[in-house]
């Protein structure tokens, strides 16, 4: 056979698959219970440019499992679409004086063509784009639904502001170093009225469900979410303030250190500071607040930063001992965490100690940990120890008892109570940008916020382009006067549309539901279809969405469940995060000039070789260094596999039962291993096992049982089916040469004959004078005489017998040979 022409094979099969549509999921089969479902999902891309190596990797990995499920007889839903709103399209439109839709839909077509060539088993009948009015109509509808439930609301507060993109950002979009995750600019704060989703209403549930997800979510995602939600147990403690009815409530995780509180600190930029400040200190506070506004939260919380602050000139009363504590304002206490006020215990909290030393405030040790008095060492201690200077805790030596004792006392006195606190904040969803779903609210001077009536959805974006879209700090939609000025749906009087658009993460928080019926004009999704198909059995994607997208989608799921629209609690039963494709040991990037163009790789080696290389490279979660890969080697392997199909000479319906047993064993063992390996995501090992089977089959053809043996056909058919999960073109070509109708994607999975899995060899132990001298791999059917001969021939045994006389040999085939000298 001649070498296989990659280009011709791709050109041949694409139209066949197009005609057969083997990947369209059958709703009826699943809704009626006729077939068991599998919902396989991979993250849909942003339409920026063409697909890159990262997409190639994730799609190749994802396709192994979805093709596997289909071969195993499940009804598989594997949809694809585009997350097509967002800044890149808008920025391109400003640069090119065009409309964001031009860039967006152009790139979508490019990517769609690449995905088809790449032969991922997507159900294209369910394709969606989040920027289509038929999609965002329902994003808007869901926003209103959540608002009805009290889960979407507007408030005025200091928000993260990106001066470069001229828009607000969610906390999740500000990186740990205080920069914008998109453009890298230093994020600042602005006081603005914005829309929020009440994610905090689900903080506890979002946190608790992670325990179960821990079992099936592969990667660092579960921990990242735990940290982001940041659950901590502590207490609220109330400190009375002279001349004020309301006490100052603090949140503390260490109520047991209450006797060590020597001052209090409130967030400088919270209303409380301005409310309680003594008149003579007001000016100093205001000057300080100006300075604070410029710093990021990260800076503010950093332990190694010099402490700054202002004495507010008032005191508060410690509820356990009546002590008067001076109240300060500082930026190291955050306005939007806990209650925005703390009791400072400098002996046992380093930030408080640094502050105390800066401003010469007292330090009182209350837990003796044996590490010395923090007042002298300058190092706060936070471990367990014996309580000192704490009348209520005399004799107590552990934190848990200390905390419980103080909380009980506070609760009895009515001055505090135990509580749970979360770091998670509500999700700020308004964006002052154009290319997003308009927020479907009309502001009426008379009726306030009025939802756009359902029958007027979608609120379609007004036509703006080029320079109209330039960021200016307020939404570009504000410039579309005719669009903005509308009649109030309630009274008909003059009113204005909300001009902000939604964060694009709103679009992607529910897309997996829209895939169930993307063209349904009557509802966002069908609850029956969701009950039948959901939740998603495996979600494959990157770690970069660990806290953003996955958390938001989980929140939406819980909110929609509580709205009676979903029956399940979590959207993604299992999650697999793939590693990155790097090059030359480094991240691929334009500035390093080490990018690898996917299209060029596909042209050079063909789709199958690139896919196989990516799957074979490493376990899915590891990074792949493309510079160290050999797509040419993959191509040679595929040629070898394909040539097998050409060599088979038996008929398709031949009975393998009397075929060569050794080859049959290898085939059935490989299939069984592949089942276990795919299900545990060890896709690279599957490829290795198929390679072994290809080699064994080649040997059988050339120097064993020969090409006409039915075991050869059985082996090659198994190779074709197994390979179809990774190299669909090659597998299809093999399948055809073996005399089958397309498509191999719908072939039956080989049935494993258990009797062929019995061990092919056992280990026999050879002892000389009672000591083990050798272990031999022998057939379980070996006879005593053969086993004895094999033992005597073993070099280690011969050495042990040198100069000795063998007196007796006891043989227990196939396990033991005992030689007595
Ligand atoms: C007294 C105390 C004594 C504290 C001690 C700690 C150690 P997590 O675990 O992160 O929830 N805190 C409370 N609200 C704050 C705010 N808005 N800004 C900055 N710090 C704040 O941390 C809770 C602890 O962080 C609280 O417990 C409080 O300090 C501080 F030996 O109270 B602690």
Automatic annotation (TrEMBL):
Name the residues that bind ATP: 590
Key word Cytoplasm present: yes
Q: Where in the cell is it found?
A: Cytoplasm
Indicate yes or no for the key word Cytoplasm. Answer: yes
Annotated InterPro entries: aa-tRNA-synth_I_CS, aa-tRNA-synth_Ia, Leu-tRNA-ligase, Leu_tRNA-synth_edit, M/V/L/I-tRNA-synth_anticd-bd, Rossmann-like_a/b/a_fold, tRNAsynth_Ia_anticodon-bd, Val/Leu/Ile-tRNA-synth_edit
Q: Which UniProt keywords apply?
A: Aminoacyl-tRNA synthetase, ATP-binding, Cytoplasm, Ligase, Nucleotide-binding, Protein biosynthesis
Q: Where is the Leucyl-tRNA synthetase editing domain?
A: 226-408
| Pfam families given in the database record | Anticodon_1, tRNA-synt_1, tRNA-synt_1_2
| One GO MF term attached to the UniProt entry | ligase activity
Known catalysed reaction(s)?
tRNA(Leu) + L-leucine + ATP = L-leucyl-tRNA(Leu) + AMP + diphosphate
In which residues does the motif 'KMSKS' region occur?
Answer: 587-591
Q: What is its EC number?
A: 6.1.1.4
The Methionyl/Valyl/Leucyl/Isoleucyl-tRNA synthetase anticodon-binding domain extends over 663-781
Q: Where is the Aminoacyl-tRNA synthetase class Ia domain?
A: 13-221, 425-626
- As annotated in the record, motif 'HIGH' region runs over 45-55
> What is stated as this protein's family in its record?
Belongs to the class-I aminoacyl-tRNA synthetase family.
What is the name attached to this protein's record? Leucine--tRNA ligase
Tell me the organism: Nocardioides nanhaiensis
Its lineage reads: Bacteria, Bacillati, Actinomycetota, Actinomycetes, Propionibacteriales
Q: Please state the gene responsible for encoding this protein.
A: leuS
